[in-house]
Write a structure and sequence with these properties.
mainly alpha
């Protein structure tokens, strides 16, 4: 089932990226969109933590789809917001630095997770 769930996250994530990308492109409300997406994806993850262990494949698939729909669009919106905030800097430089910092934070998180758990 995990392969199907991964496919659901990818497909609904692409649909969410298209829809949210169009919305942000028209409205230019980057911060509001990011806050909405972050709160909705966190809510979906919390619900998924309670629904997943029950073993209902269809219900779990629905919540995983919603999680992918709200989580995947955050990355391109974050990169676009970074480019808007650092306007005089070239987009490649701003995007590269943002990507580098996300990788650094991921490495720090992985290395320190043993201390947290």
């Amino acid at each position: 089932m995990s392969g199907y769930y991964g496919g659901l996250v990818l497909v609904t994530g692409m649909i969410g990226s298209i829809i949210w990308g169009i919305y942000v492109g028209i409205s230019k409300k980057y911060k509001r969109s990011l806050m909405t997406l972050a709160s909705l994806s966190t809510s979906m993850l919390i619900v998924l933590l309670f629904v997943g262990p029950k073993g209902d494949a269809v219900l779990t698939g629905v919540w995983i789809s919603l999680y992918g729909f709200f989580t995947t669009p955050m990355l391109p919106i974050i990169f676009e917001l970074c480019c808007e905030i650092t306007f005089p800097v070239a987009e490649a430089n701003a995007g590269g630095l943002t990507y580098m910092m996300t990788q650094f934070m991921g490495i720090c998180g992985v290395r320190n997770i043993k201390r947290i758990i």
